[in-house]
UniProtKB/TrEMBL annotation:
<dbReference type="InterPro" id="IPR008220">
    <property type="entry name" value="HAT_MetX-like"/>
</dbReference>
<protein>
    <submittedName>
        <fullName>Alpha/beta fold hydrolase</fullName>
    </submittedName>
</protein>
<dbReference type="InterPro" id="IPR029058">
    <property type="entry name" value="AB_hydrolase_fold"/>
</dbReference>
<dbReference type="InterPro" id="IPR000073">
    <property type="entry name" value="AB_hydrolase_1"/>
</dbReference>
<feature type="active site">
    <location>
        <position position="277"/>
    </location>
</feature>
<feature type="domain" description="AB hydrolase-1">
    <location>
        <begin position="51"/>
        <end position="207"/>
    </location>
</feature>
<keyword id="KW-0378">Hydrolase</keyword>
<feature type="active site" description="Nucleophile">
    <location>
        <position position="126"/>
    </location>
</feature>
<dbReference type="GO" id="GO:0016747">
    <property type="term" value="F:acyltransferase activity, transferring groups other than amino-acyl groups"/>
</dbReference>
<dbReference type="Pfam" id="PF00561">
    <property type="entry name" value="Abhydrolase_1"/>
</dbReference>
<dbReference type="GO" id="GO:0016787">
    <property type="term" value="F:hydrolase activity"/>
</dbReference>
<feature type="active site">
    <location>
        <position position="306"/>
    </location>
</feature>
């Protein structure tokens, strides 16, 4: 069941604030008496707490009969406080910059409210991985294990440039009007999705026709599908989350910088970059794992590109993730 956690006027690390802030979440299962059987699933770009449902249930990655599963929505995703769902003071183009750290601080307040004393595992795909790293660095004594999938501990320069490209496609629509649009900037939203489609999958995905396995009849249907999906999004919400992504850096607020933050992570980590991911490449994860106290690099072997590991896409990738989950929870 989806619920709202009221944060009041929530102060941001930037010094700004979110008035009447709400963090929206879903729970599955029951918290044990020790408050120690929590699984946290932070949402990802254009995803919601419900997007993790393919991982939750009997026989799936996380069984509610055993675990207290909390799936939480990012600020800006249109479910938690967002440009499209905000106090009039910060609605639309007036929405302030929100960092990954802000999301994690708010989530920490939520879990404290729910009675959680220990997090057995934080598993997150894409932007969910950014949050998993931030959690482990900011609250090392609370987190037993993390499973970052197709993500990283910070947004790399190349990743930043990719995001600038999709953003530029949206901003070029004159209907956008610097975020003060009267009607949705449909042309810009579709252009955003079209550009994104070329980055979301690998070259092999298109070369080998793997798109047919995901229900696309042709390359053009991939393009049209992504354009149509993004046409349904709120433009300011997309840009708010995109900014959160671009500013991501686990060392941004740590006195020891990036290396110090990574070195302070005590949680057991299995890091699963997509083997053909174009914007969270395996090479970045290799360098990050070297900085962890107890980290293992375990590439997610797939030709799906970045989409490898997204909940509910394909069993071949889910099986690899399941093996890592079982190992982390067993230990």
């Amino acid at each position: 069941m989806r619920s709202d956690f009221d944060l009041g006027r929530f102060g941001l690390v930037s010094g700004s604030s979110l008035p009447s802030a709400q963090l929206t979440y879903e729970t599955h299962g029951e918290l044990d008496d020790e408050g120690s059987n929590c699984i946290l699933l932070p949402s990802y770009y254009t995803g919601t707490s419900s997007s993790y449902e393919p991982w939750i249930g009997p026989g799936r990655l996380f069984d509610p009969a055993e675990w207290f599963i909390v799936a939480v929505n990012l600020f800006g995703n249109g479910v938690s406080t967002s440009p499209s769902r905000a106090h009039p003071e910060i609605a639309g183009a007036a929405f302030p910059d929100v960092d990954i750290a802000d999301n994690v601080i708010a989530q920490h307040r939520l879990l404290t409210h729910l009675g959680v004393k220990r997090i057995r595992l934080i598993a997150g795909w894409s932007m969910g991985a950014l949050q998993a790293y931030e959690w482990a660095a900011r609250y090392p004594g609370l987190v037993d294990a993390i499973l970052p999938i197709a993500g990283a501990a910070r947004c790399s320069p190349h990743n930043f440039v990719f995001l600038e490209g999709v953003k530029a496609a949206l901003l070029a629509d004159p209907t956008f009007r610097q975020g003060r649009y009267i009607t949705p900037p449909v042309q810009g939203l579709r252009a955003f999705g079209t550009v994104y489609a070329g980055w979301a999958y690998s070259q092999e995905f298109f070369r080998h026709g793997t798109y047919r396995e995901l229900g696309y009849a042709s390359v053009d249907s991939v393009i049209q599908g992504w354009a149509a999906d993004h046409e349904q999004e709120d433009a300011n919400d997309l840009l708010a989350m995109l900014g959160t992504w671009q500013r991501a850096d686990v060392g941004k607020h740590h006195p020891g910088g990036f290396e110090g933050a990574m070195g302070d992570i005590t949680a057991r980590a299995i890091v699963m970059p997509g083997s053909t991911d174009l914007y969270f490449p395996q090479a970045d994860s290799e360098r990050e794992v070297e900085l962890l106290q107890d980290g293992e690099l375990r590439p997610l072997v797939s030709e799906l590109g970045h989409i490898a590991g997204r909940p509910g896409v394909r069993e071949a990738e889910t099986a690899q993730i399941r093996s890592a989950v079982q190992e982390l929870l067993r230990n």
